[in-house]
Amino acid sequence: MKYNISINQLAWKFYFPDAKLKHVVVFEAIRSMCFSTDDTLLRTTNGFTWISNKLILKEVPLLDITSKSGISPILRKLEEWKLIETKNIDRNKYYKITPIADKLRRDKCTDEEFKIMKKYASKYSEKQIHYKKKNI
C-alpha cells in the first residue's frame, strides 16, 4: 500500500484542470510502482511494468473502489491525458510513465513554468473566493 502521496496540486490544476483526486492517487500509485526497485514486479526491456488492476486497488484503499471495473475509467482518463502508456502483452496490462508526467513534479518544472502555474492558481483561487461570496 502507498502510505504517503506527495502531490503538486498546482501543476495538476494547471495542466489537468478536470483531474479529480482519484486520478491523482491512481496515477501516483502507478508511478511509484513503475519506478520501484522491487524485483518482484515484471518489467519489459522497453520500460513497461506489469501492474494488475487488483494491485492498483490494493495500493489505493482511500478511494474505496472495490472492483476492477471501477478503476478502468480512471486508467482510461490517465491514458487519454497521455500521462501513462499501456501495452497488452499475453492478456496482461503493462504500464509506462510518459515524459509529460514530469511536468507534475515540482523538481522537474522550470522556474518559469512554476511562476506561470502560481499566477494561474492565484487567479483560480480569486475566482473561487468571488464565487463563494456571491452565493452566501
Name the features:
single chain, mainly alpha, three-stranded antiparallel beta sheet, 5 helices, 3 strands, disordered C terminus
Describe the structure.
By secondary structure, the protein is mainly alpha-helical. The chain has a single domain, classed as Winged helix-like DNA-binding domain superfamily/Winged helix DNA-binding domain (Arc Repressor Mutant, subunit A, Orthogonal Bundle). The chain is 48% helix and 10% strand. It has helices at 9-15, 21-34, 53-59, 68-80, 111-134; strands at residues 49-50, 84-89, 92-97. A 3-stranded antiparallel β-sheet has the order 1-3-2. A hairpin with a 2-residue loop joins strand 2 and strand 3. The longest helix is centred in the last third of the chain and has 24 residues, at 111-134. It is globular and about 45 Å long.
Write the layout of secondary structure elements.
Layout: H1 9-15, H2 21-34, E1 49-50, H3 53-59, H4 68-80, E2 84-89, E3 92-97, H5 111-134
Antiparallel strand pairs: 1-3, 2-3
Helix pairs in contact: 1-5, 2-4
